[in-house]
Records
---
Amino acid sequence: MSSAPQSTLPYPPIHAGKKFVALSDWDGTITTRDSNDYLTDNLGYGKEKRRQGNFDVLAGRMTFRDSFREMLESVTAAGHTFEECKEVLRREIKLDPGFKEFYACGMAPLIRAVLSNLVGEESANEIEIIANDVDIHPDGKWEIKYRHPSSGFGHDKSQAILPYRDLAEPPTLFFFGDGVSDISAAKHADLLFVKVKGDGENDLSSYCTREGIKHVLFEDFSKALPVIQSVVAGKQTVAEVLGA
């Protein structure tokens, strides 16, 4: 833990004493579309350039931190304010159809905005969000505030997982993700669920297959729920789920 990147933003407390902890990516995992991708494709420099950035990250030619910053800068450069972006996402981004049943993290203000619209203000406030943030300037321009600016990931999601490993009785950790922003967390979960999307942008699945990281594919949370329930009930072990 001594080499962990310094966080510029606070973390919620560790849930010590829990037997199971579930952590999830937000964009494209809990939602049916990635909100930042949507903004970039429709208000920024477009899908083709965004996808090339993802391929560069997967190939190690670029860090996700720098690719993501360029994506969002293309939106602000086109003159779109943060409030405008929030309203667009409230209108266009939908929840994974199985998440409400499953529900027991992007940028926190955008996640809150969409969550409150999809699951209600009270439920949204009960969900702990570990994300990047945003700085809004007096002239209306805005920019991402990375949680881990010294890390090539910008937000190193493994740092939400690794503290649980130091507990006297660490829980079984489930992680849900879909894309290049989740690479930092992929190998640290006990049971990794990787979302398969119909648009073919299955970057996390490609990465895990290449790196030999065992994972479970799922289309929506209703498909993942029975697997989680089986492990929690002791009917299956993680190793059995992964086919080890």
Note: Residues 104-111 have pLDDT under 50 and may be disordered.
---
Amino acid sequence: MCALKSGSLMDLYMRGLVVPLFYFFFILATKFDFCIGYSPKALCREEGEALLSFKKGVHDPSNRLSSWVGEECCNWVGVLCHNTTGHVLQVNLRSDVYDPTALSLGGNISSSLLDLKHLQYLDLSYNDFGSINIPKFFGSLPNLRYLNPSNAGFGGVTPHQLGNLSKLHYLDIGSSDYYDPISLNVEDLEWISGFPFLEYLDMTNVNLSKASNWLQGPRFPA
């Protein structure tokens, strides 16, 4: 048999250490989300600032957003974060129509919501935003799966930019005469064809009379 040199023995020994150490640190990073420059709390602080900017523009007569203080935005009412990354995934500010003390939110909607890069769910239904338009920038929330601004006092033309939400599964822009006498209108229906994964669409009481192609209707992907 050929004798191994001491250098070769040392190489084998070091390799034997490197593999277990690499595996150990990999498991550690996976389990505890250790990563250079990464901190769930820091993410919450950054995305929390976006939510606080949104709060500043909102009229909140019953102080529903009173928990929106401090840096722990994942503990705020209506906010849901990813368990490990800390990214804000859901903002649910639907007004409870059965609770007389829960007054509707109103005011303006800040474009600071664009800083919620991972937002998947946005519900503003049953509030009263005083006939303002549905913000065009909603169409620039790339990961949105659920969007519900129904019965929330939005008026004017429905922005075609919503058609950019290619991951959307649920869209409700409808209204009822009882909760929201203000109706939206659309000038074109082609934007609806931009939803390859759409499973639910409610356009109740949306005025289609100005849509030049409403007879043909949108062309959904096969």
Note: The chain is about 20% helix and 15% strand.
